[in-house]
Structure formats: structure tokens, C-alpha cells
Write a structure and sequence with these properties.
Two copies of one chain form a homodimer. Chain A is α/β, with parallel strands linked by helices and about 350 residues long. Chain A is built from twelve helices and twelve strands. The first copy, chain A, binds a DNA duplex (16 and 16 nucleotides) through helix 2 and helix 4.
DNA sequence: ATGAAAGCGCTAACAT
DNA sequence: ATGTTAGCGCTTTCAT
């Protein structure tokens, strides 16, 4: 069976015996239409299975495409999946659809995707940046009026809207929780590279908590890891120090997993642990894992709302929205230090 | 600053002093062009920051939009996120981008999304169906030549390409593993409703394994759950039976989590467990969780390849691709039955 | 090697 | 209440 040509507005018009514009009016409900023609038109639309070509419509109206371009480092990461879901919920009512691409944390690929999305004339562009990408080149794009918004981390080299977690505050709270249980030497296992925004913020929170408690900051207790394996190795290393930490703060979700695995394998259940970002099954680990939970759905929703506000003409200066984190106490932070 | 109008092909042409068509030729490399004009054109393109409007191009060429529409029940589920990533990798080389929507397992919303995607003239449509949706209505759409492809479950009411895991075989292998360790009463905690494809297949595999070992099938050992909480409750119920199972087979990932949680809370570590679908941290649970792992990236990749083949003119009849599952032995299946 | 005109499917702006 | 014309930004077709 050869592919039947998709019916056009014209086909419907001919079928009914009216002009294309009349059909258009019925479908979009702008001009006035008699009830009789409206009915006939709708019947013909149904019969032919007509679907207006959205691209043609967008071209003619000159407006942007009714899509939001979203670039994330990794789709398999439920954090970004949930963020995407939050965006979708927020913009669905406005008829916007998500165009999604993953950069694999490669700045070049991220640029490619952004460029494709802009060529598609997306209504708005949202980017959860890859490690090491710079966004100064987006200034030109933004001058054309496309709202550009950053997720999880602010843009580099560009003042743009962004939505982030309360990284510093969250980390401070998590570390303060450990300090409250008597820990004075607390290891920090964070992301790499050291300059990475989320790592920097969370490390700052860690130092805030130490300072507030009058504890010294010891660089020997700070490790960097960019994979679960790395984090496990870093955990082993910290625990092997001459004057080892009695508690650990894992500053992101794979650090959390790596640390949990390392502690379990080393049978070091007495080491207290708080992690940034929640993980599945945290409550049945032994001990149950205390975390500083992010709210990815809220991040997505806030991003969606900000984009809509920009599309509605909000020309205010770049705005940073901070989404609260929440300390979820489950037990692993309450192990007392052993001496 | 007012939004600067996006430059068009015409603007570039004027800037250089040639016709629009010449610019088009340079950019698409079809007609012949002199090296001199090519250079001038490219310079002007760079200077103006011109990006061809993909929608306009698609309209004119009459081809489908260079997107693949993907509908999944839930974006936050890493299974679907990873599937999406697999699709993207497979089709990226052909310049196709993902248009993504989540149905929230609501058939009406799924239909809406599909309809929007078709109106956008996607090159291909991929659907991981919501529970309870019927797809007979897609026959019309498919007659227009859009490849339609189902993920995770086959279509209902329509013969279409689909890519699924080896559910039956995988379940059989997982249950056989339990039988090999001496279990004769094995509980099955599956999805709801009972008619759901994946549940049916996995239950069939469970029965295959029982039959192969000459064990009776006892309906009292089969439970249904559609959330982690449900699954935990079902686990408690099965363990409370007069003649309780000594092992459990959790037939999907939330059943897995629910069962793990229930066993941990009831301190019933001696109950053997195998789960369908891998979960994070499975290897540090106590005991480490043995699973029948799916390969979502391979599912996505296969789907992408199938779609490309269809776009390349493959008109063969509907094809079902089965992606192998893999038994990952970690320990929880090796608890011996207590008597 | 380049340009002019026509048209993809639709809607804005003016008719009637 | 409906039709006509023009044109969105691009590419096809046919000239030159």
C-alpha cells in the first residue's frame, strides 16, 4: 500500500465546498462561522483524518515553534528525567512540547544540540550544562528574544535565568547534622573538577557548618570523584588516613552510592554518613541513609514557569530561582563518633 | 533591547549581493557554486548569525519533520530515560531529534500526545503504552506512511513493530534459579492489572519454570501490585500464608523495591528473592539482590534502528524485536529454603 | 554558475 | 459569514 498523501486544509475545503480560510476559521475559532458550515467542516475533517500541519502554521504566524528545547547531560539519570517531567507539566497547558537532547556531558555536543534547537525556532531553550561548557556564544541567540534558562547550574560567561537547588544551605544543614552528633572530623567527597558550581557551593556549605561550630577546615579530608567507583576509592582513602574522619558527607548522588558501597564492603557501619541528593532504597540501607534531598520536579516546574513568564513579555533582568533542599533524617547521620 | 529579527536567507543574499537561491545552494551544497561566492556567503552567514529555519525547509521539501516522537508513561523512571537515550544515540547520526512526552499512564493523555506529534509531522512515532490504552485508531495514521513503533509492550489492536525484553524467558530463568536452590513454594509479585502484557509474559515464564521442575502452580502464591507500597503489602500477605513461600519472584522494579523493603522491615533475610529489572545499589543490599536485568539502552537502540530501516523504505510486515535479559547473580537467590 | 518564479500548507489582511 | 490575495522562509523548477 502506497502512503496516502496527508490531507491538507485545501482538501478539506474542497470536500465541503468552501474556501481554505473558512476551514481554518472553524479549526482555530477566530473569524465568525455559521453553525451549518462548522458542522460540515468538522465532519469532513473527521472523515479525512485531517490534522493541520503545525510547522506550516508556525511558519505563517511567524511565531516560534511550540516547543521547548531541553539539553541535559544524561537522560538515564532520574534527576534530569524528573526535571523534564516537571517542565512538561508546567508548560503543557500552553501547548508546548519538549524537544530533548542529551549532551553526554560533552560541551561540543551540547553546542550542537543548542544550535539545532535554535534552528528549529524553539520557544525557549533550557540547558543543564555539561561540565566545562561555556555559554558566552549564546548572547547572540538571546538577542533574538528566545528565553534561555539554565538548570542545576548557572550559565558560564552569560547572565541568564537559572534554577538551582539550595546547594550551599543544604550542604550546611547536612554537615551540621553530623556535627550535632559529635563529629569533629568530617570527610567531604565531592564532584570533579573542583571548580564545578555544585561542588563549589556544597563545599562552601560544608565549610560554613564547620566554621559555625568552630571546627577547623582540613584539606586532607576533602576528596574529589567523578564516578561511583572513584567515590568508593576516595572513601577508602579517607578512612585510611592517620587521623581519619568519623563521618562523611557525600556531596552528590554517585558519591553517595560509592560511599555507601565502600562503607558496606569495608564493614564500617559505624562511620556516619549524610549524602546530598536522595537515592532509591535509601531507607532500607544499613543504616538507613540520611540525605539532603533535592526536588527535581520543583526545579522543572520553576523553570517552566520562568520560561512562560519570559514568553509573556517579562523583560526583567536575569533571575536565579533557588529550590529548597530538605534534610531527610533516616539514621546514617546519627552514628556517634568512636574514639 | 528589542528582539532583533532573525536573519533570513534573503537577508544573507542581500548582504552578499546574490539571490536567495545561491545562498541556499551554498548551504545545502546541491547546485554548483563558485568558490568566491561560497566564501562570501559563508562569511555573511557567520556575520549575521544566520540559521536556516528548519520548519520552513521541511514545509517546502514536503518531507516529515526531522524529529522522532516518543511517548513514555513516566520520564522520571530511569528505564524510560535510558531507552530514550538509546533511541537518541541510534538516530542522532541521521539528524533526528527526540520530541518527548509523558502520558502519566493515562490513555487519553497518550492519545493527545500522539496526535500532537502526528500534527507536527514527526518522522516516526514511538510509544511505550500506558496501561489500558488501545491503538486501533493508529491504523489511519500509519497509512500515511509514518513508522509507528511500540516499546516495552506491543500495541493493542494494531499490528506494529515493537521492541520488548525477553520477559518470559527472563522470568523463567530467574525462577529456575530459585528452584535450583531447593525452593518449591515461590511467590510471584507482579504488576496490575493481570492482563498487562509484561505481567502476563513474566507470569508465563514463572509457570514455565515451575512446570519444567514438576512443581505445582498455586494461585495463592500469585499477587498483584501497582506501587512499591502495594508490593510491600503483598509480600507481607504472602509470608503470612499458612503454607508460605520460601522464595519470592518480584516481577518488576517497584515490586522489587517493595519486596526488598518488606523483607528488610520484617527481618526475613532468609527468604530468597529474585527480581525482574535491575535496581541501583542492588549489590549492597543484604543480601545483595539477584536480578533479571533488562537492557533499556539496547531496547532504545533497536527501536532507533528499526525506525531508520522503515524510513529507508523497509515495507516488511510488523516485526517484534526481543532484547535479551540477563540473570545477574548476587546472592539473594541463593538462600536455602528453611523448613 | 546564477537567478526568477512558483509553491509547500497555512494564516493575516483585506475584501465582499 | 465567507472568499481572495498575499506572503511566512525556504526549495523546486526552469531559465539564462
Amino acid at each position: 500500500m502506497p502512503a496516502t498523501r496527508r490531507p491538507t486544509l485545501h482538501d478539506v475545503a474542497q470536500e465541503v465546498g468552501v474556501s481554505a480560510k473558512t476551514v481554518s476559521r472553524v479549526l482555530n475559532g477566530d473569524g465568525p462561522t455559521s453553525a451549518a458550515t462548522r458542522e460540515k467542516v468538522l465532519a469532513a475533517v473527521e472523515r479525512l483524518g485531517f490534522q493541520p500541519n503545525l510547522m506550516a502554521r508556525n511558519i505563517r504566524t511567524g511565531g516560534p515553534d511550540t516547543t521547548i528545547g531541553l539539553v541535559v547531560p544524561d537522560m538515564g539519570n532520574p534527576f534530569f528525567g524528573t526535571v523534564a517531567g516537571g517542565i512538561e507539566s508546567a508548560v503543557r497547558g500552553r501547548g508546548l512540547t519538549l524537544l530533548l537532547g542529551s549532551s553526554g556531558d560533552d560541551p561540543a555536543r551540547e553546542r550542537d544540540l543548542i544550535s539545532t534547537f535554535l534552528a528549529r525556532r524553539v520557544s525557549a531553550l533550557m540547558v543543564a550544562p555539561a561540565v566545562g561548557s561555556d555559554h558566552a556564544y549564546l548572547k547572540a541567540a538571546r538577542a533574538t528574544g528566545v528565553p534561555v534558562l539554565f538548570l542545576d547550574r548557572p550559565a558560564t560567561g552569560l547572565a541568564a535565568d537559572c534554577v538551582v537547588s539550595s546547594n550551599r544551605d543544604g550542604a550546611r544543614t547536612g554537615v551540621a547534622h553530623l556535627i550535632a552528633y559529635g563529629h569533629r572530623r568530617i570527610g567531604f567527597i565531592g564532584d570533579r573538577p573542583a571548580g564545578l558550581y555544585t561542588r563549589r557551593e556544597r563545599l562552601a556549605g560544608y565549610r560554613d557548618a564547620l566554621a559555625a561550630a568552630g571546627l577547623p577546615y582540613d584539606r586532607a579530608l576533602v576528596a574529589a570523584a567523578h564516578s561511583q567507583q572513584d567515590a568508593a576509592a576516595a572513601t577508602d582513602r579517607l578512612l585510611g588516613l592517620p587521623d581519619p574522619p568519623t563521618a562523611l558527607f557525600a556531596a552528590n548522588n554517585f558519591a553517595a552510592m560509592g560511599t555507601v558501597v565502600a562503607l558496606a564492603q569495608a564493614k564500617r557501619r559505624e562511620v556516619a554518613l549524610v549524602a546530598f541528593d536522595d537515592i532509591p532504597l535509601a531507607d532500607i540501607l544499613e543504616p538507613p541513609l540520611t540525605v539532603v534531598a533535592q526536588d527535581p520536579a520543583a526545579i522543572g516546574a520553576a523553570a517552566g514557569r520562568t520560561a512562560l513568564a519570559r514568553l509573556d513579555g517579562d523583560r526583567g533582568s536575569a533571575r536565579t530561582t533557588v529550590i529548597d533542599t530538605r534534610l531527610v533524617v533516616r539514621g546514617s547521620g546519627e552514628q556517634r563518633p568512636r574514639r
